[in-house]
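User: I'm writing a tutorial on reading structure tokens. Could you give me a worked example: one chain, its sequence, then its tokens, then a sentence or two explaining what the tokens reveal?
Assistant: Sure. Here is the example chain.
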Amino acid sequence: MSKIKIPFEKRDLLYGAWITIIVAALAGIIGLVGISTKFYDPIKQIFDPVRLSDSFFYIHHQKIDNSTDSDVVIVDLAGYSSRMEIAQVVNSINKCSPKAVAVDIIFPQIVSSASSEDSLLVDTFRSCPNLVLAQRLIKGKDTYSYMERSFFADKVECIEAEVSFENGIVRSIPAANNGYPSIVSVIADILGRRKVRNGELINYSYLNVPKFDIKKISSSKDFLTGKVIILGDGSDLRDYHDTPVLFDGVTRTSGLNIIAYSLNTLNPKMGFTTASNWVEMLIGIILTYLFCAFLASPIHRMGEYKDFYMDGARIVTLVMLLIVSYVLFWVFHIYVYLGYWLVGWGLSGLATGVFYKLYSKR
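And here are its predicted structure tokens:
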């Protein structure tokens, strides 16, 4: 059986450039059509982010190991209904000399609540070292917005931090929101960890999140000493968010878990480098050109089996790039976005046909 030889010629270097330009023009036309009519929305989806990182994290999250963040402990207040009980929990934590206490709960002013309970809660939080209180910027219609805060925030010495997450699937570490620091960045500063990079991916590799049963505090006080304690309500479904991985069989998990995973990502060798949008676009253009010049253009001259060879070339290059992306992701912690190249990969066959049709009429 004879080997398949791709008839590459020097002119394909020029042809590849023209085909890449046609790919860009076709992509632009499809994008404009997708904006103007819902009928073509499925085509427009090729411009949406292709999140290979979701697949990578999904696979590695299933590999359960003993990875843990020894500086952070979560205390779940689910089941504690009264402010008196919460004050007692916080008081017990304070006796263990924690490094800081971060509260992922917003306590509104409740008219019906007992003033004695509110006073006890305020006094207890006033004794917390490095207290971090949650706040949330609520955006209304037009330009109207207001800040949701705990009623005692102005009565205690604390740092207020945003607890909002991105809409949809939470992939990135929550950063500043309209100038307000995120709870992750504030806790990271207390722990002496690096700054959050804009749009930085959360490392969703499996993490054994340390969770403490406050009822056992009498027998394990040392477990909380010198740690950052994050208080929250793990049963509050309003604070559940979509993620790219499974937690107990579902892709939704509490904000407490997302905060813990985000903080762990800021540990040495746990973060990922992501290129800027312009660099990713340039990579997509270069890969599209190489595919068009060295494969699409010469393959188009291979007679009646050219479509078969083109499909084969697409499959091979796709598999190769997926392997390279996987190695870059897990070995070097570099995330390469392939969405722009996939646009060129998908339109290269059509663009090559258009080019040769126009070229033959010269």
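What the tokens reveal: The two ends are 38 Å apart (CA to CA). The first strand starts at residue 72 and ends at 76.
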